[in-house]
Specification:
The chain has about 325 residues and is of the alpha/beta class. It is built from 11 helices and 13 strands. Helices cover about 35% and strands about 25% of the residues. A 6-stranded mixed β-sheet has the order 5-6-7-3-8-9, sandwiched between helices. A 4-stranded antiparallel β-sheet has the order 11-12-10-13, with helices on one face. The protein has a 3-stranded antiparallel β-sheet with strand order 2-1-4, with helices on one face. About 40% of the residues are buried.
Length: about 325
């Protein structure tokens, strides 16, 4: 059992966690805290996300530093910890010849559930992920989207306190990704299970996660509640129709806005405006466009994103 019967304020934490493979530093002195809810573990491929998940599960001893997960030390209490944690790896290693319900039941038994309870939990979890009517199909006959749902079903079948999902939307089309993310959010909210969702797609994390751990080349970029890290709406985005006439060009609008005291960041035909209240920015944008004889394609409130967070860290 974990050290406390109540839900911890921190479900996982690392202290100076370092993982080296030869001369390659996969994790570089990470100090991370993950809280209940859905945590997005985000970063480009090769950022160290899977290495961190393996360390949290106790599957690989770190080179130095330490971790605590649900009150357990993954190095010395790995088996006891993994009985409390559901895990869906990124790699698709499902046995094609097995029926979905048999596969999920088997892994529930491996985690310690009696056979009869594991059978019931397997069926229930497959219904929960939308595969109830498909539960007797063999895994080899299922689509990529269905196989991803089977991986999610086996991760939650043993009623874990924490679920780790490594790239759960890999191989899915946009509609399937949206459905999977909605499902993960519902499972966390309705069944009070914390989730760590690893993804290299920043917009996925923004759409479903309460907290963020952002990695870049093994180093920590940011860690905390997503609302605090990216904040509320930030300024205004003004996209102009590209024209060849200098009088109505983006240059002319940019110059007019700067002269009016507006902070401007330019990306092609889009001007990111800041430094004033949003209503003031909108008024000055319209004035500058009118004075320059330019044409607006888009004018909208701009929200800071996780991509901005990575750009700031790289600067």
């Amino acid at each position: 059992m974990s050290e406390s019967g109540s839900e911890p304020a921190v479900i996982a934490a690392t202290t100076s966690l370092t993982q080296q493979f030869g001369s390659t530093v996969a994790l570089d002195g990470l100090d991370v805290q993950m809280r209940p809810g859905v945590t997005g573990l985000v970063g480009a491929n090769g950022a160290g996300k899977t290495t961190l998940l393996n360390a949290l599960l106790g599957l690989r001893a770190p080179t130095s530093g330490s971790a605590r997960v649900l009150g357990f030390d993954p190095r010395s209490q790995g088996a006891a910890l993994r009985a409390q944690v559901g895990f869906a790896p990124e790699r698709d290693l499902l046995p094609d010849e097995m029926r979905a319900v048999d596969f999920v039941r088997h892994l529930a038994q491996v985690r310690g559930l009696p056979r009869s309870e594991a059978r019931t939990r397997a069926s229930d979890s497959l219904w929960l992920v939308g595969l109830g009517e498909e539960r007797t199909r063999t895994l080899g006959t299922m689509s990529t989207g269905q196989r991803q749902r089977v991986k999610l079903a086996q991760a939650i079948a043993s009623d874990p306190r924490l679920v780790l999902l490594d790239e759960p939307t890999s191989g899915l089309d946009p509609t399937q990704r949206s459905e999977m993310l909605t499902l993960i959010g519902e499972i966390s909210n309705e069944h009070s299970v914390s989730v760590v969702l690893s993804s290299h797609l920043l917009n996925e994390v923004e759409s479903v996660c309460d907290h963020v751990v952002a990695l870049d080349a093994g180093r920590l970029v940011a860690c905390g509640p997503i609302g605090e890290l990216i904040g509320d709406d930030e300024g205004v985005a003004l996209e102009l129709v590209d024209v060849t006439d200098p009088a109505g060009s983006v240059d002319a609008v940019e110059s007019a806005l700067r002269a009016a005291g507006v902070e401007v960041e330019r990306a092609g035909t889009t001007l990111r405006l800041g430094g004033r209240e949003r209503d003031v920015l909108c008024d000055r944008a319209r004035d500058a466009v009118a004075d320059a004889g330019a044409r607006i394609r888009r004018l909208e409130a701009r929200r800071r994103t996780l991509a901005d967070l990575f750009e700031t860290a790289a600067a």
